[in-house]
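Protein fold
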Amino acid sequence: MPDRTKRSTPVEKSRRFKPTFADLIDRLTVDQIKEVLLEGDRPAYAAEMKDLEHDLEGLIRARSLQLSPRLLRIVIALAQLNLHIWHCKDRMAARPDEYDQWLRQAHQLNGLRNRMKNLLLQEIGEAGRSSRATNISTDGLNVTISI
């Protein structure tokens, strides 16, 4: 969440969404997955991605953010984690007898996803306490991301 004590900048006023930079990137990766994997409402996903791009562009310009290899790796990891979570949810629906196993893995991956979102916030200098994702538990997931 944005710091409510700061005055709104023109960029903030023109934003179509108010989530953090990390939340915007996260939503963009999920919409991209939907556009590729789901039949049907692709134009709606494309339209939302344009709105997300608008807000991200404004934040990037307002903060003079630079692309770095680390930032790029975090975004790639976030997109991969979202895709893996998507697959877990598909397996939960397809294999009701294994539902708990896939739910646990989705929860564990979500903890890593939130860690990546926190790293994104850190990378752009937006890692205030109120903006950080707090569910970062991986409950014994044996996956390490070297970022």
